[in-house]
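WARN no homologs supplied; continuing
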Amino acid sequence: MSFRQPPMQKQQLIVQPPPTELEPKRIACRPLQDDDRRDPKMGATDGKQTGKKPAKQMLGGVTVWLGPPVESVEPSWMDQEYAEASDDSFSRMSIGSKIHHYPLENGRTYHAYRDGQYWAPNDRPAQELEGISHHAFLRTLNDRILLAPIHNPRRALDIGCGTGTWALDFAEAYPSTEIKGIDLSPIQPKNKPPNLSFEIDDCCSDWVYEKESFDYIHIRQMYGSVADWPKLYKECYDHLAPGGYIEQAELNPVPKSDDGSIRPGDPFDVCGKLAISAGNAFGKSLTIEETMEDDIRKAGFTDVVRRKFKWPIGAWSNDQRLKELGRWIHIIWIRGLEGWTLRFFTKHMGVRYLWPKDVPGRERLGIPKLTGTVDL
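OK structure emitted
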């Protein structure tokens, strides 16, 4: 869907990545090297988009930026400085404070700042998984980092930047743009381009940035992270300059199958439905993918574009592009399922911690003929 926008009004573009060919055959988790990069001005173009879109070109392998080693601490630990920071009037905190002392739950660590506001771990396995996920998004976008037709933006904001991998790519593709990444966890690299900065910040608090100060705002995989999406979209609208773009990519946590291979009661089916229930109990919906278009329009954005695609789970597709993509998504599911469910299920659903043993049907995740897909 596309609507022509009046001059000097804010715009919005929802990114849902199309399936494209993947080349890498194995994972190489390592810091980004100079020879991993190609000219960011040589990014491929999409037939439904107009104008040139700078993007980083990836070579084979997965590029992963790892943050500082996590420390195992008592789950209840919280110093006075951090406790005082839980008030909404204080939405930022220095990287140098004790927010590196992460709470430990079921063998996984989580963010300390605003403890409990986010459900996913921030430890090394989670950081590596984010690198693989970023690679999957890049490959499905023909090695582009965005689809919005932006031109020489002055300032950009990456909400929920995680390890900062996407922000790093953006900073190199747009060296004249000031890019800021915000997240609850200080897991971003110290070595970064001069036009990139990271802050520990909660996007759900009242924003303190200057109004209309950003030309581009990026949101990706923030499902289950925001209790009041209309409020967040309003903040985005108020802080985007006229003609600016917001771009968001989300997943639906409920796997589906066109051929009925995911049956009622199967692990995928049960896990997806439990995830929705857990998100509701948590007070933050995991199905924002289904409602974000309407919410964004209601915030005042015009020229809204929605693109919806499927990610195969496993190499079952006859299409070689989807087959290779499915291998990556399968890896993401195998490595990510524990972290996606632990805090949600144990805290909000009363589920006992059984992983990795005694989970009925877990072996089915490795069956390539399970033709499940994830909606994007």
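The helical segments are 80-84, 124-140, 165-173, 229-239, 267-282, 288-298, 320-348.
OK
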